[in-house]
C-alpha cells in the first residue's frame, strides 16, 4: 500500500471513530427519571378519551361539558414541567445517526476520496488514472468472455492509459475476431509506427510499411471518424507525404472542430509547404497556433470573419491588442505579405 493510500485509510478511520463517539454519546448518558410521569399519562389519556367522544358525539347537549373537561385536561398538562428527554427516542436517533455515519464513510471510501485525489490532476491525467484502475477488470472480462466488444473495451482503456503492451494484446485479439475493425487497425498501426519512441529501438522499414498499411486501412474503413484522419495524418507526415498529411489533418479538424491534437503539426506542415508564399510562411510561424491553420479561429478569433481594414490589421499585428501579442519586428515585406493574405481570407469568408 502506498503512503497516500495509507493516509487515506487512516483519515477515514479517524472520521469513523469521531462519528461513533459523537452519535453514541446520548447512549452513554443516563436518562433522568420523570416524577410526573403517572400524572402526565393520566391527563394524556383523559384528553385523548374526551377528544374521541367529541369526535363521535351524537347528543349535542353533552358537548359543553366534554369540551370543558378536555380544556381542564389540557390545562393540567400545560401546568406540568417539561418531561425529560426519553431514552428510547434518543437511542433511536443515535442509532440512526450511527448508521448514517457508517454509510457515508463507506460511500466516501469509494467515491469522495478517489475523486478528491483526481481533483488535483488535469483532465487527461485523471482520465488516465481512471483507465488504469479499470484495466484489471476489463482484462479479466475480455479473457473470460472472449468477445470482440470486451477486447475493444480493454484495448481502449489500455491505449488511453498508455499501457501499450496490453493495448497491443487486446487489439490484436479483437482483430482476430474482426479483421476489419477500424479502431483496432489504426491504433495497432500507430503503436507499431511509434514503437521506436517507446522502446528506444529503431523501427524497421518493413514494420513501418506494415504500420502504414494498418492505419490506411483503418481510415478507409471509417473515414468519418476523426481519429482515423488524425492518425493517418501523423503517419503520412512521418513518411514525408506533407500534402496528403495536411489534407488528412484538415479533414480531422473538420470532423472534430474542437480537436487540438494536430495544431502544431498542421502549422509545421503549412510552413514547409508554403515556403514560396511569404504570407503563409509568416502566418504559419506566428499566427496559426492561435487563429487556426486556415485562419478560421482557434483560441483566437476567426480572421476570415474579421472586418478590420488593412491599416487596422497592421496596427493590431505590430502593436498587439488584448491577449494578442505584438510583432513589432516583422520585416515590412513580411508584414505586407501577411496583410495581403489576411485580406484575401476576408474576401473568401469563413
UniProtKB/TrEMBL annotation:
Domain Cytochrome c: 274-346
Segments annotated as TPR repeats: 148-181
Alphabetical UniProt keywords: Electron transport, Heme, Iron, Metal-binding, TPR repeat, Transport
Organism superkingdom: Bacteria
UniProt GO molecular function: electron transfer activity; heme binding; metal ion binding
Keyword Transmembrane helix among record annotations: no
SUPFAM superfamilies: Cytochrome c, TPR-like
Cited InterPro entries: Cyt_c-like_dom (IPR009056), Cyt_c-like_dom_sf (IPR036909), Cytochrome_c550/c551-like (IPR051811), TPR-like_helical_dom_sf (IPR011990), TPR_rpt (IPR019734)
Pfam families: Cytochrome_CBB3, TPR_16
Name of the molecule in the record: Cytochrome oxidase
Species this chain originates from: Deinococcus soli (ex Cha et al. 2016)
Amino acid at each position: 500500500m502506498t503512503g497516500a493510500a495509507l493516509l487515506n485509510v487512516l483519515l477515514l478511520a479517524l472520521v469513523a471513530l469521531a462519528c461513533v463517539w459523537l452519535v453514541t454519546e446520548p447512549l452513554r448518558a443516563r436518562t433522568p427519571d420523570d416524577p410526573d410521569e403517572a400524572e402526565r399519562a393520566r391527563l394524556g389519556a383523559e384528553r385523548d378519551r374526551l377528544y374521541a367522544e367529541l369526535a363521535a358525539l351524537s347528543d349535542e347537549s353533552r358537548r359543553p361539558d366534554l369540551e370543558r373537561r378536555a380544556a381542564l385536561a389540557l390545562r393540567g398538562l400545560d401546568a406540568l414541567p417539561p418531561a425529560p428527554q426519553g431514552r428510547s427516542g434518543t437511542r433511536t436517533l443515535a442509532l440512526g445517526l450511527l448508521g448514517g455515519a457508517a454509510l457515508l464513510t463507506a460511500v466516501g471510501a469509494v467515491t469522495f476520496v478517489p475523486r478528491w485525489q483526481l481533483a488535483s490532476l488535469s483532465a487527461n491525467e485523471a482520465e488516465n488514472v481512471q483507465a488504469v484502475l479499470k484495466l484489471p477488470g476489463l482484462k479479466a472480462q475480455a479473457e473470460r468472455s472472449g468477445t470482440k466488444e470486451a477486447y475493444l473495451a480493454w484495448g481502449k482503456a489500455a491505449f488511453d492509459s498508455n499501457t501499450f503492451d496490453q493495448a497491443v494484446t487486446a487489439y490484436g485479439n479483437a482483430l482476430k475476431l474482426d479483421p476489419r475493425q477500424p479502431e483496432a487497425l489504426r491504433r495497432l498501426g500507430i503503436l507499431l509506427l511509434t514503437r521506436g519512441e517507446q522502446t528506444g529501438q529503431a523501427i524497421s522499414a518493413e514494420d513501418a510499411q506494415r504500420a502504414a498499411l494498418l492505419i490506411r486501412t483503418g481510415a478507409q474503413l471509417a473515414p468519418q471518424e476523426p481519429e482515423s484522419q488524425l492518425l493517418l495524418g501523423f503517419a503520412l507526415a512521418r513518411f514525408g507525404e506533407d500534402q496528403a498529411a495536411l489534407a488528412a489533418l484538415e479533414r480531422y479538424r473538420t470532423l472534430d472542430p474542437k480537436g487540438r491534437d494536430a495544431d502544431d503539426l498542421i502549422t509545421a506542415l503549412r510552413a514547409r509547404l508554403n515556403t514560396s508564399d511569404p504570407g503563409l510562411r509568416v502566418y504559419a510561424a506566428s499566427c496559426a497556433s492561435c487563429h487556426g491553420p486556415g485562419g478560421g479561429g482557434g483560441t483566437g478569433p476567426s480572421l476570415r470573419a474579421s472586418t478590420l481594414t488593412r491599416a487596422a490589421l497592421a496596427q493590431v499585428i505590430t502593436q498587439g491588442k488584448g491577449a494578442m501579442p505584438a510583432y513589432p519586428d516583422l520585416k515590412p515585406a513580411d508584414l505586407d505579405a501577411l496583410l495581403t493574405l489576411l485580406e484575401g481570407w476576408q474576401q473568401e469568408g469563413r
